[in-house]
Design goal:
- By secondary structure, this protein is an alpha+beta fold.
- The protein has helices spanning 2-17, 24-78; strands spanning 81-82, 93-96, 105-110, 113-118, 124-126, 132-142, 150-159, 169-177, 207-208, 212-215, 218-221, 230-232, 255-258, 266-272, 278-284.
- The strands form four sheets. A five-stranded antiparallel β-sheet has the order 1-2-3-4-5, with helices on one face. Strands 9-10-11-12 form a four-stranded mixed β-sheet, with no helix packed on it.
- The protein starts with a helix and ends in a 5-residue tail after the last strand.
Length: 289
């Protein structure tokens, strides 16, 4: 009985003593695997965060760039004239518009912001916000006779941030052409510099309102192909209700009809007489009969 009890106690002690834990090597291996997995997950998280931050910057720059381009395209296409020197880069786009409430229209850049201004006295309307800056913008007019003129647009947009991970810059270079003929709802007035002309020797106007026609240096009124310097289909009326000017060298060759209230009208011409003087001389009237 005693021996059996001793054997039972010895067996119990062996079972309790045989329950083993993790060894030091196993613990170190577990820590290494766990640390590597955490580092990998942190790297993925940082990478995803950087991509998301950069996408936010790119979306902002792309959105505002497209908004500016759409406005420029809309204005250029509906403009009557692109009033800029040809093939000369400038930071201001000036467009002549048919509507007097929008003529002229400007696109300008000030302090990194793109502005729209309608009429010379109009206020500035911002086309970009303070979340981006336009570091440079240039316009260049391209002439394409007999086609419509176009405008080359080149500008750089940057996202405003102090975080290097959010920095994003976009450079746009495109061209926009006018698509409509020049249409004016007000007077056609030349610029103050008096440098513009209507027509050119290599591209004469064919007609004005299908009433006044041109053929080389000849002008026809109601005549499609004038054969003389001036050819008129119909009568010519000289209306001289105003006061007759003094006949001098500046009026030489002028024909004038002197209207009389009772007597017969006379037709006079300002001519140079012997001795170098100038005088109105009757061509047709009582004194010439």
């Amino acid at each position: 009985m005693v021996n059996r009890l001793r054997r039972l106690l010895a067996s119990r002690f062996y079972l309790l003593d045989s329950r083993e834990g993790f060894s030091l090597i196993e613990l170190l291996l577990f820590v290494a695997i766990f640390s590597g997995a955490m580092i990998g997950f942190l790297g993925i998280l940082v990478g995803v965060t950087r991509v998301q931050v950069r996408q936010i910057a790119a979306a902002e720059v792309n959105g505002q760039s497209q908004f500016v381009l759409q406005n420029i395209q809309r204005l250029v296409e509906k403009s009557s004239v692109i009033e800029m020197p040809t093939d000369t880069s400038t930071t201001t786009l000036k467009l002549r518009m048919a509507s007097s409430t929008a003529d002229p229209t400007y696109i300008i850049v000030q302090d990194g912001v793109v502005y729209l201004r309608e009429t010379d006295a109009g206020s500035l309307t911002a086309l970009t916000s303070n979340r981006v800056t336009v570091s440079s913008m240039a316009f260049k007019k391209r002439a394409n006779p007999p086609g419509h003129d176009s405008v080359a647009v080149d500008f750089t947009v940057e996202y405003v941030t102090a975080n290097p991970q959010q920095r994003f810059t976009q450079i746009l270079d495109t061209a926009i052409a006018r698509v409509s003929a020049a249409t004016f709802d007000s007077n056609v007035v030349p610029s103050t510099g008096n440098i513009y002309k209507l027509g050119a020797s290599a591209g004469d106007w064919q007609s004005v309102n299908n009433t006044i026609y041109f053929s080389g240096s000849n002008v026809g009124v109601g005549v499609v192909s004038p054969g003389q310097t001036l050819e008129v289909n119909g009568g010519i009326r000289v209306n001289t209700a105003t006061a007759q000017p003094t006949c001098d060298s500046s009026q030489r060759g002028t024909v004038w009809i002197v209207q009389n209230a009772v007597a017969t009208d006379t037709v006079q011409a300002c001519i140079r007489q012997n001795g170098g003087t100038y005088a109105w001389t009757n061509l047709l009237g009582p004194s010439s009969w």
